[in-house]
Amino acid sequence: MLDVRRLRLLCDLSRLGTIAAVAQAHTCSASAVSQQMAVLEREAGVPLLERTGRRVAFTAAGRILVRHAETVLAALEQTTAALAAVGTGLAGPLRIGAFPTAVRTLLPAALVALGRRHPGLELMVSELDPVAVPAALRERRLDVGLLHDYDVVPVKPDAALDAAPLLDETVFLAVPATESTTEGADPLRDVRDAAWIMAGPGTLCHTVTLHVCRAAGFTPRARHHADDFATVLALVAAGQGVSLVPQLAAAQPPAGVRLIPLPTRRRTRIAYRRGAATHPAVAAFVSALRLSTSAFLGE
């Protein structure tokens, strides 16, 4: 009989690429992971990995087992959801991961509504960059989390996760109110020589800004780096540069900021492990967050 915990390690190895990375994700030693893989190979009765020095590659049997293991793990999530559905009320922890703007704008009303409707739920929020949410879901540190990407820089779906659409936002060019732009012209062309306020290198927002500006024919000149949109807008209002800001973060801009809509869109989704969509706590959260989002946007 194949051990589910070892199947999780195998899927993590397929995703992360090295035994050392799997060990770090599970806070154990690399030798412990290697031992578990050796036991799994004995359980399977066929070689799953080919070892070359410190590197490993999957055999044909290993690749087949990874595909089936993902299905098995999703089926276990569905089973957990089905058992929870026959319970006598929602109770226990629901661990939620969300990016700062959503925590500030969309989550409070959703948490209040969920708490009133299901007082037995222990709602636990962690503020996370969307890039960190998939790993936290797979490693069971979260039950549900918010992801986003942009139409100009789409993110490849994660095979271990499912997601429901939540929000499709306009992205704005934020400029100081004193900044002049040509009527009817491409607003990006007018700020090609401006100083830019950009997110930190390596973040999705930084990549999107580079993509949008380069598509307009220039590379932005970064003066400041800030990841919090409230900080970004304050710097724009102070005349320190221009920036790209999504609709959710631009709902109440400070005085001194002018927002110019661009064709770029940011897309937010509610993610959870495959098979968990019907879990009553997950379904209740998705419903509450959608209502909160509609209310916030005045829909």
TrEMBL record:
Key words of the record: DNA-binding, Transcription, Transcription regulation
Species this chain originates from: Planotetraspora kaengkrachanensis
Gene3D superfamilies noted in UniProt: Periplasmic binding protein-like II (3.40.190.10), Winged helix-like DNA-binding domain superfamily/Winged helix DNA-binding domain (1.10.10.10)
Domain HTH lysR-type residues, every copy: 2-59
Keyword DNA-binding tagged: yes
Pfam families tied to this protein: HTH_1, LysR_substrate
Taxonomic lineage: Bacteria, Bacillati, Actinomycetota, Actinomycetes, Streptosporangiales
UniProt superkingdom: Bacteria
Assigned GO CC terms: protein-DNA complex
Molecular function, one GO term: DNA binding
The protein, known as: LysR family transcriptional regulator
UniProt key word Transcription regulation: yes
